[in-house]
Amino acid sequence: MLSNTPRSTVKKAAHKAQDNVETLYQVIDHSLVAHIAINQESGPVVIPMLAWRVDDKVYIHGANNSRLMRNLAQGEQTCLTFTLFDGWVLARSAFHHSAHYRSAVVFGSFERVEDRGEKDRLLNHFIEQIAPGRCEDIRLSSDKELDATMLLEIPLTEASVKISGGEVNDDNADLDIPAWAGFIPYKTVVGPLKPSATLAQGISEPNYSDAYGNRWFDNIDTQIS
């Protein structure tokens, strides 16, 4: 079950809150982009970053001279947001138009991963997450490259999840309005692969579909339920 702290308690539309840890993991794993907040002298800044989960921690990486990474490495409090947009909700009134979405907010502070071997393992884990088996085919990071990269981790000990996926919420008085009501679903389609212009002849196309399940283009259900 997810934590229930003053920061992580969902107050607006609380009926959309989820307390299942696996739901949190799914939102993070499918998003892979975190919007991360930092405070600077000039004011707050929110920056999107690639992010991935290993067990109960989230990781981000960047150059050692990155403004964001240097700020977060100091252990200051921050929050990460992940959002998956699933479609529009069209109501019979302008006021009740809305959206279907899955979102997660993670609170806490980052710590640096200092050990070079552990850093290499975790960075490779991200590659394997987006393209299973790829680390067997590519040149892995050199010591110089690892030393130039900062890896930060944040535990998933304080987080909230919110899912909006319900029916059209029209007022009873509006149900007789002769306007179409329903949904415009959005679906994320992954693939097909597009080869680089520099790809040498004779290299066979890999299959990474296992990482994406029904989001892989061959598996997309064209029937709108």
From TrEMBL:
This is Flavin-nucleotide-binding protein. InterPro entries: Pyridox_Oxase-rel (IPR024747), Split_barrel_FMN-bd (IPR012349). It comes from the Bacteria. Signal peptide: none annotated. SUPFAM superfamilies: FMN-binding split barrel (SSF50475).
